[in-house]
Amino acid sequence: MSGPGRAPAVVVSALAVLMIGACLWLDLLNEPIDRDRATMGWGTISALVGAIAVATAVPVLWRYPRHLVAWVIALTGLLWAFDGLCESWSAYGMAQSPYPPLTGFAVWVVAQLGAFLLVGLPLVLVLYPTGRLMSGRWRVVSIVVIAMACTLPLLLLFAPTSALNAEEFQLPLDTGMPELPIPGDVFIGLLTVGRFLTLLSLPLAVVVLFARQRGASGRERMQLRWLLWAAVMCVVVSGVAIVLQNGWVVTIALMLALGLTGASIAIGILDPEVRDVDALMGGTVVWASVAGTVIALDLVLVAALDRLLGDRLDERDATLLLLLIAVTIYAPVRSRLTTVVHRLLVGRRGDRYSVVTDLAARLEESGDVRTQLPALAVAVATAFKLDYVRVEVFGHGGGTIAATHGRQPRDVREVPIRYGEEEVGRLELPARGVRSMLSKRDQALLVDIVRQAAMAVRSARLADDLQQSREQLVLAREDDRRRIRRDLHDGLGPVLGGVAMRLDAAGNALDRDPETTRRLVAQSRQDITDALADVRRLVHGLRPPALDDLGLLAALDQQAERMRSADLAVTVAAEDVPLLSAAVEVAAYRIASEALTNTARHARARHAAVRLTSSAGSLLVEVGDDGAGIDPEVVAGVGLRSIRERAEELGGRTEIVCPPTGGTRVRAWLPLTIDPEEHR
């Protein structure tokens, strides 16, 4: 960025430094009695507060010279510093006789113009983080908020002195500034209404901020979380100031709260990912809660000892007794209390090892997917103290198995459960709330939980698949046996029995009726021919004979020739195909044949290509076409399921995709680790 672009940041910084220097010089000149007479304090403190606000806005102005939020903070800080300068000048001027120039103006700034400091916070809330008002109806609400925030400052700007005095605020001198020609009693009512509207603008601005947060996503939501963290810190700092009730502590707390808020806004605008804000938020809430609980317990312990012992122990003995109690009894209790508070707020996410081991134990007790999923949902909900967790596992056939813990909120986010490259399921978690904010450490714990779940789900699915495969093998074997028995008993057996009877009859008629013998022998020959055809059909059902007669490549050429037509051209190619086992040969032939059949029936393609190649210990069977592809809404039919099942039976995998260029590509990887000699 060029030099002129950084000029606003330089000018704002210079003005703040100059006003702090002038305030400090005047405050050192003023005597305490002068400040008391003028009812003024140290202006340097106000100027320092303004300088803190300016310091948080300067980095944003340095990078974004036109960012409206930075300008609001910078101008508010300059007004604060100017108010402090006028406070110091008022005390100095009123100690002189006659009053030096601008003394009345300085008093007017402190008493009346300074009310515009109330406008800064609501204005920042409706503009952060983009520097623009929200659109739609919330834009109108934002404008109303700004108008309400300006009501009291505008009324005070030229308020009649009589109205101010009636409000129990006595101006130390006549400021000489113009006043509105309104009776004091009437103006008091206006001030009451203005005060109410200005105070109401702050909670209404918070409502606008929450509305922006509900519609935010990505970077903007992270920016808003930085402001939320600042709000939590302001509450903590304010609580400390209220408990201690010390003037200097309150002042320092105010400066600290202002600095933290400005710094959070600057970080949110410049680089919201510079720090894990979710971890910061969670740690702050836990620390504040634990600290508050421990401090309260400390006060109760001290009060109890003071009530029991009173003045019977001197200071030295009381100190030793407190140390003894703290070391022997109180320290373990406080440590346990810290753990309990931490778990009540954010669960067990801090005890990573315990969470993972408990989950592993639960999953070991549950051998079935349907019983593992509720255990996983409860484990995640307990570990992260979440009110809702849903676990869903995908089935091979397209169905799902799910388990839910708690009631589903309106906004959820999904976390995939992966085993290697395969997505086997997903987790649904709440998307909003402090507990849903996962730090990087929490995300690492969630990854460990998901990894454990993926392994368990994968193992359970493999066990189910193995059992189903065994059942299918038994059923297929028995079906084949029943079919072969039926074909032999009802088909081939009677035919061969009839042939034997005809041959016996032909032998008996050989001498006396040669013509009948010839007819019976011819009929027997035809029956034997038909029986041989049945035998070939049975053998073909067990294994395609073309594989044994021609080999895999020639058999595929033969199948491609059957599929060729005037509208479809089919090519077959092979590269470096080694000696294959019988099982791999059959699977490759069936997969390619099924893919070509689907292409001829459904794809309306002009060209199809079959390619065989081997690499990395597997045989790749690829069938591609230039047809219409597969509609995403179409449910996988028998053919596609058959392709997947044949590959998975051998431990292979399939991929069926429709490229952007059109057509369909079916790929199947079949392992070559099966010994060919064992299957021949």
From TrEMBL:
Keyword Transmembrane helix assigned: yes
A Pfam family matched in the record: HisKA_3
Record-annotated Histidine kinase domain positions: 590-674
InterPro entries the record matches: HATPase_C_sf, HATPase_dom, His_kinase_dom, Sensor_HK_TwoCompSys, Sig_transdc_His_kin_sub3_dim/P
Catalysed reactions listed for this entry: ATP + protein L-histidine = ADP + protein N-phospho-L-histidine
Transmembrane segments: 7-28, 40-61, 68-85, 105-128, 140-166, 186-211, 223-242, 248-270, 282-305
CDD domains: HATPase_UhpB-NarQ-NarX-like
E.C. no: 2.7.13.3
UniProt entry keywords in alphabetical sequence: ATP-binding, Kinase, Membrane, Nucleotide-binding, Phosphoprotein, Transferase, Transmembrane, Transmembrane helix, Two-component regulatory system
Name by which UniProt lists this protein: histidine kinase
Organism the protein comes from: Nocardioides endophyticus
UniProt lineage: Bacteria, Bacillati, Actinomycetota, Actinomycetes, Propionibacteriales
